[in-house]
Design goal:
Elements (H helix, E strand, L loop, with lengths): L11 E4 L3 H8 L6 E6 L3 E5 L7 E4 L19 E5 L2 H13 L4 E6 L3 E7 L5 E7 L7 E2 L2 E2 L4 E2 L2 H5 L4
Parallel strand pairs: 1-4, 5-8
Antiparallel strand pairs: 2-3, 3-4, 6-7, 6-11, 7-8, 9-10
Amino acid sequence: MAIDPRVDIGHVHLKVSDIDRALGFYRDVLGFEETTRYGDQAVFISAGGYHHHIGLNTWESLGGSPPPPGTTGLYHVAIRYPTRAALADALRRVLEARIPLSGASDHGVSEAIYLHDPDENGIELYWDRPKDQWPREGGKVTMYTRPLDLEGLLAETT
């Protein structure tokens, strides 16, 4: 039995080692708004006034370190931007903050940049092309991974 097609991901909750350092990334660089704070242990952030898209907490991770390579856990959180220009603005903010990219790809259906937050959680920032532009073969979506033209993307900010 298939899942109801209206189901979506409501939010993600990340364990971080330092709330203020995490907010320096998610709020000050990416631009999310703080909606609720639970002292120095948790904060909820969102875009557009939603109650929260991302929760950040130190309940089990205060002062902790990222999990070592070769362990299970979160691969990345994907944050979808509504337009290519909005993604370009996010890229500009990331570069201005001197946050290194770990990748940048054109997937046919989307364009994405990859980086890590201060706790080494994988972050994908992307926008979806309109569905009628998605590559298809035999009626099925055919995603691929090609290098993303970052200069071309940044040109969207001017």
